[in-house]
Amino acid sequence: MSDSEGKMDVFGIWADRSLRTLSYRDGSWSVSWTNLEGVCYAAPTTCSTEEGRFDVYTLDARRILAHKWNENGEWKPGIGDGDWDVDRDTARYFASSPIAICLGPDDMTMTGFRNTGPQHDFAFLYGNGSLDFTQQDSQGGSYIGDPTVVSRGSGVLDFFGVGAEDRNMYYISWSKKDGYSSRGDDLGGKFQSAASAIVTGDLGGYWDSAPSVVSISDGKIAIFGIGANGTMMHGRWTVGESESWGKGEWFVDGAKLSSERYRNGPA
């Protein structure tokens, strides 16, 4: 992730479940990985609500949100004591990796599937950063694996998930201005991967991985994933103001990869 121009930090979980980071500054990478400690049970998700600061979130052994942040080069809580800032609302258990999206200064969302017993429903948190969430709600449902979330700009977020029982793809749309415009639309299909993107019709493709969705620019979305026989693929679409998807196109990028996963992060 990048919190300011010319700076970049990459995060990953090691075999001992500690979180490690490597920094890119002034045209070169740091010599070694920094150990941020912790015992992480979800892929890290990052968010920067202001220049010079970025926040990192994961789940602890109880599957509750855990949080560290870097402000002007200094990690808080500090490194060496093993401390993380942990969500005080211990009822917010996550069954999936959480996903943080920054919408602007002191303005962010956190999305995931909650552990509510036999079903994992859709949970949405809204707040001003850190673990200070002023809004919390659920749109129900029962999902498997991790959600996919993409921001189309202007405070509009699109959420995709695969149903735990029918393996259909479901779609939820939310905007900061108008709230929810779609609430768990059943888009059909029989998916064997984590959610990708489908709104008014099947986007095609054949997947053996958890696809990754990124926003290229306002209204334009790219989807990456591993297709049949380990081939890397990507597609590009334009999304209209009414959440309708225009004509897209798939591209085969080659390679020989292999992964059959519903998850984007570790179990």
Report on this model:
This protein is mostly beta strands and 267 residues long. It has a single domain (8-202), classed as Neuraminidase. Helices cover 0% and strands 48% of the residues. Strands 5, 6, 7, 8 and 9 form a five-stranded antiparallel sheet that branches. Strands 1, 2, 3 and 4 form a four-stranded antiparallel sheet that branches. A four-stranded antiparallel sheet has the order 10-11-12-13, with no helix packed on it. Strand 2 and strand 3 form a beta hairpin. The radius of gyration is 18 Å and the shape is globular.
Quickly list its features.
21 strands, Neuraminidase, 48% strand, mainly beta, 267 residues
Q: Quick one: biggest sheet? A: 5 strands, antiparallel
Q: Taking all residues together, what is the mean pLDDT?
A: 75
Whole-Å distance between the termini? 23 Å
Classify the secondary structure makeup into a structural class.
mainly beta
The number of domains is 1
- Give a count of the beta strands, DSSP E runs of length 2 or more: 21
Identify the CATH homologous superfamily: Fucose-specific lectin
List the total number of helices. 0
Which CATH architecture is right? 6 Propeller
Shape: globular
What Rg is obtained from the alpha carbons, in whole angstroms? Answer: 18 Å
Question: How much helix is in the residues?
Answer: under 10%
CATH class: Mainly Beta
Spans of at least 5 consecutive residues whose pLDDT stays below 50 are 196-202, 258-262
Please identify the oligomeric state: single chain
Which range does the strand content fall in?
over 45%
And the CATH topology? Neuraminidase
Q: Helices and strands, in N-to-C order? A: EEEEEEEEEEEEEEEEEEEEE
